[in-house]
Every structure is written in C-alpha cells, then in structure tokens.
Amino acid sequence: MARARKQSVRAAVLRDLAAIRKADAALADGGLAALAVSLAEQMDSPGTTGTERASCARALTQALAELRELAPPKKKEDAVDELKQRREQRRRAADGGAGT
After folding, report:
1. CA 56: distance to chain centroid?
2. What is the domain partition of the chain in residue ranges?
3. Span between the terminal Cα atoms of the chain, in Å
4. φ, ψ for residue 46, nearest 5 deg
5. Which residues 6+ apart lie within 8 Å of 14 measured at CB?
6. Which residues contact 40 (CB under 8 A, 6 or more apart)?
7. Whole-number mean pLDDT of the chain?
8. CA 42 to chain centre
9. Number of neighbours of residue 17 by Cβ within 10 angstroms
10. CA 25 to CA 18: how far, in whole Å?
11. Whether the Cβ atoms of residue 3 and residue 30 lie closer than 8 Å to each other
12. Cα→Cα distances 19→9, 39, 68, Å
C-alpha cells in the first residue's frame, strides 16, 4: 500500500495563520504567530528528540489556541445586512452608477 506523504507542521501552521490573517493581519504577523512558526519548524526538524517534540507540540497547541481566541470572530451577514446591501445596489443603479 502506498504511503501518504507526510505534511509538515510548518505548512499547516502557515495555513492556520493565513486564515487568521483574513480577520486580523497584525495578529497573524505578530510575535505569537512567529513563535508558532518557530515551534512548527522545530517539530519538523529531524534533529528534534521525542521529548523536545512533545514539549513543542504542547506550546504550539497553546499558541494556536491563543491566536484563535484573540482573532476577531467572523461576521455573519444577517437578513438586515442583506437588505441593506440590496438597497445600496438599487440606489447605485438608480443614480446611473454614480459614486462607483
């Protein structure tokens, strides 16, 4: 059976930070994010011992949880937002696209 290619921890952390960046760029580029990337790189390093890897995993889990907690929540559009958006589109269309 073919063996699945191992995903790097660093690549996964960078994907998580990209998602956080959509909500808060400063948070995704800050010190806590840099720490998360550094810990991920240590976990990916072949020279890291099992004990060191376990310690890094705990710290990385905590750092990512803290980043997610600090990130602003995703805003859900409700019916009022949708109606507001439609009204603005109608106004722009009625004005002949002025102001766009």
Report:
1. 20
2. 9-94
3. 58
4. -65, -20
5. 37
6. 8, 9, 10, 12, 13, 60
7. 88
8. 20
9. 19
10. 9
11. no
12. 16, 19, 10
Tell me how crowded residue 13 is: count the other CB atoms within 10 A of its CB. Answer: 23
Cα–Cα nearest to 23, from 61, 67, 80, 62: 67
- Please give the Cα distance from 11 to 45 (Å, whole number): 13
Burial 50-73 (b: 16+ CB within 10 A, else e): eeeeeebeebbeebbeebeeebee
With 0-12 / 13-18 / 19 or more C-beta atoms within 10 angstroms meaning exposed / middle / buried, residue 33 is buried
Chain segment 5-46, per-residue pLDDT in tens:
678 999 999 999 999 999 999 999 999 999 999 999 999 999
What whole-number percentage of the chain has pLDDT above 90? 63
Q: Length of the chain, please?
A: 100
